[in-house]
Amino acid sequence: MAVFSRPRQALMLASVLGLAMSATACGGSDDSKNNSGSGDCAAYEQYQGNDGKTVSIYASIRDAEADLLQQSWEEFSDCTGIEIEYEGSGEFEAQLQVRVDGGNAPDIAFVPQPGLLARFAESGKLKPASAETKTMAEKNYPADWLKYSTVKGTFYGAPLGSNVKSFVWYSPKMFAEKGWKVPTTWAELMTLSDQIAAAGTKPWCAGIESGDATGWPATDWIEDLMLRTQTPEVYDQWTTHGIPFNDPRVAAAVDQAGQILKNPKYVNGGFGDVKTIASTSFQEAGTPIVQGKCALHRQASFYANQWPQGTKVAEDGDVFAFYFPAIDPAKGKPVLGGGEFTVAFADRPEVQAVQTYLASSEYANSRAKLGNWVSANKGLDINNVKNPIDKLSVQILQDQQTTFRFDGSDLMPAAVGAGTFWKGMVDWINGKDTASTLTYIENSWK
Fold this sequence. Notes:
CATH topology of the largest domain: D-Maltodextrin-Binding Protein, domain 2
Helix content: 25-40%
Family: Belongs to the bacterial solute-binding protein 1 family.
Distance between the termini: 22 Å
Order of helices and strands: EHHEHEHHHEEEEHHHHHHEEEHHHEHHH
Radius of gyration: 22 Å
Strand content: 5-15%
Largest sheet: 6 strands, mixed
Number of helices: 18
Signal peptide: 1-25
Number of strands: 11
Protein name: Carbohydrate ABC transporter substrate-binding protein, CUT1 family
CATH architecture of the largest domain: 3-Layer(aba) Sandwich
Keywords: Signal, Transport
CATH superfamily of the largest domain: Periplasmic binding protein-like II
CATH class of the largest domain: Alpha Beta
Pfam families: SBP_bac_1 (PF01547)
Number of domains: 2
């Protein structure tokens, strides 16, 4: 669910050194040197020739995070003379369509849904990425990511920020006291769940209530289990309706998730029975861990911002997360996640320069140094990522064994992915059987 793909929290804004510099100081360029923040304009030579030009960017990123975003390209602007006008909106998806239809499209947008990106591309509204942007993106991002911004063979823009959803949150202190070990396989995870339940604690806590978006956390469970019970190719077929939603392989994944979510011995720690999952807000769902009332909570990296104030998120802290185990680790490391893509509605030289820069390792490192950010950019230096859960996320994304797939509901038509899929999961948690639930969703896609 893209609306939750970006964390929200009060941040201590980092200072950026060496911002006041002359564009004439620029010399040679090498994308691998990560010169951003060095007070040297050498990294920006290829973007010169656009002094005095303005590029508008529109996205859903707001508040303190938007402040960090604007800091991240200040040196680029100072060195190239390109002014970037940024606007963030909580109504981004709806308003972007209005602006485009009204002939008032931004130069660049950060689009978090590949399905929305494809719709703009197929309507002819998006501009194909320049050769320079494509080359930069192919250098810095895995092919698993670039396919989501490629429509009918045309590449439209690189990824920007990312998040990892395949995490299970836990209390390192509780695990140490109880002698529990972090599981590395699905079988070990289930054995651990049985061990915790036998000790008198509900091992899992969960919550899928989210206002008008109630149900989305359960869809993440199904997506993660589709990646673990099936091949990546079957997952792709499922998200594009290449196989029906009520295919037996989808049912198998749902039932696998149900081994935890619909097991009264496992859930819902700190809240009640299985049905309380539907009425427990996703923001509060993990808090019983810090209260000692449950041990495990499956949720994305951005959940780091939902813990009570003062909670230390670290491997030796109050809470941390481990990778949601694969069923067969020999087949690789399936990872579910999300992010946004930098696409353009204009192809002026200065717009192309900004789009190319945002795909570079210089930009990724500039943004990472300010904190609270994750990217799949292969040129991102892990030493520039300070937050422990962000660092773990980057390590997973950069792992050669990782097979990444985008949030499935964001790839589906909105009426399904953000409609019947959400509602169907609520009904399923409340007692509806798997076959009827999946047939209901399948019929809505037809």
